[in-house]
Amino acid sequence: MESHSSLEDPTSGNASQPNQIGTSRSMTCVLYKAAAAGDINAFKNIEKPLDHLFTVTKNTVLHIYITAIVRESESKTIFINEILDECPSVLWQTNSKNETPLHLAARYGHIEVVSFLIQRAKNLYQDLERGETAREMLWMTTQEKDTALHEALSHSHLEVATLLIKEDPNYSYFANDAGETPLYIAVERNFRDLVLDILDKCQSPAYGGPLGRTALHATVLRDGTEIVSKLLEKLGGQIMKADQNGWTPLHLVAYLGINCQSTKLLLEFDEQIAYMRDIEGRTGLHIAAYCGHDDLMAEIISSCPDCCELVDKRGWNALHFAISALHLQSLFEVIEEDLMNHPKVNRMVYNKQNLNACDFLLAGEKSQGKKMEYIKRVFGEKYDFSACSRVLMAWHEFERSVKREDEMKRKEEEVKKKKDKEEKDLDRQERLIKSAQTNLVMATLITTVAFAAGITMPGGFVGGEGPHPGSAVLRSSAAFKAFIIFDTISFVLSSVAMVMHLAIPWINEYYASFKYFLLAWSLIGYATTSMVLAFATGIYAVLAQSSSGLAVASCILCLTYFPIMEIINLRALRHAPRLLGSTNGVVLKCLCPDIEMN
């Protein structure tokens, strides 16, 4: 088997040139399975060079083999060695994600494979400085800008990460597309020993993280006092920078309140961090006061007492924050001893809304007695409200603004309720019209049947030879007379219901149209009942003389209509208002399912 690749400088960019060939795969199923199994025999005497064999995602033989490795062993490098002997350029060849075999080996934690690939890179080019080629392979990044070290740390393979750091301790390993540097990942995942290893061995490691944060932000979140000290010692003041929201590590500590020792270390290293503000103008002291972390407040004030003078963009100082969050009970000891009695704290300072700390206390949700207790403890027993008209004016203005806001909210709620009601009525109106259209069809059918029954007449008409020609044959029958009456009632009621349904779409007010609908629906019910009775009496009139038994049976069967309808109405009445009656209750339940039924 001949070698299909000449020795080329991987830095020239030609190593990954096969990746530019088409998008179709050039590796058969047989070769793919052989690559996964590490069967070198399948790749002997093939026509294509090994660096031209790849899948649709540009994975080469080595990509497939390294991904398929289940258990680590030295024997696993034999196949890799034989492939590289035949085609050395496969070592740097990338797939569609710009991942080299080293990236995959680091991701899956194959330390023997990682060590072997680095060694082969060192031994491959004798004309280059030994080790330079291997280091360039360590620097190669994927589409997400991940190096092999990023991959190892992201997947918690610490032995692989240690090996990669040892191979090139001078490289900074910059951030990937997610903004993560290897140092940040190690700190965030609490790989303490590895972090210390990076800080000890690497000359100038990159320390950035996502959202503009640094490894120091991640360290204080992990409560790592030792790591904080090491980071400050190694990287100095450059790591004290703020994130994209303006939060320094001190802001995070003040917010979480988890590590007073870290606060002390930060302040000892550079007191300036206590004066750094976020994008809203808040310092670490403001955050600690708002969150009620009195121990951190005491630490900050003892190191930087003049930071009490700082206010945010709204004009709030630390006292405003403490009072607005109602953390007074837990903060009184700090406030009285360190803050309120400090000569540089102006207890009467006003913010941009012309309110001071007293106004905040008065505006709180506590009871009047509680408010007065807090004011006396903060401002003293002899505090005179009337001595400062500005306080009262500000308070009254504050009350008026609160009332205005409440009034605006009330009006907004009323408008919203009115809009919701209109939308609900519109939806009901649409459902009502659809139901009316269905009932209109039913009313029309009843009218048509009643009309046809009245014209045809049961029993027929008297011929021209008999008395009263053209009259009904059964006109003297009582059953026939009942038929005529019931049929007429059915015809009239269904006709009126039909006209009422035609009028419903033209009525804009929902409840008026609903009443029309209920009345028309009731008329249809009565028309249906009359139609059943007309049918029963008509059948009886025709069959009474010739087959009285059949006539009686037919009438009995017709009369079963009434108990069936009663059962249906009784079931509906359980969930319908009594005032609407049985029939109307059914309709109300169908059209207004959101109305509470008794």
From TrEMBL:
It comes from the Eukaryota. Coiled coil: none annotated. Gene3D superfamilies: Ankyrin repeat-containing domain (1.25.40.20). Pfam families: Ank, Ank_2, PGG. Keywords: ANK repeat, Membrane, Repeat, Transmembrane, Transmembrane helix. GO terms for cellular component: plasma membrane. Residues 430-542 form the PGG domain. It is found in: Membrane. Residues 8-21 have a biased composition (Polar residues). ANK repeats lie at residues 97-124. It is a multi-pass membrane protein. The chain crosses the membrane at residues 440-462, 482-504, 516-543, 549-568. Residues 1-21, 406-426 are annotated as: Disordered. PANTHER family: PROTEIN PHOSPHATASE 1 REGULATORY SUBUNIT, SERINE_THREONINE-PROTEIN PHOSPHATASE 6 REGULATORY ANKYRIN REPEAT SUBUNIT A-LIKE. This is PGG domain-containing protein.
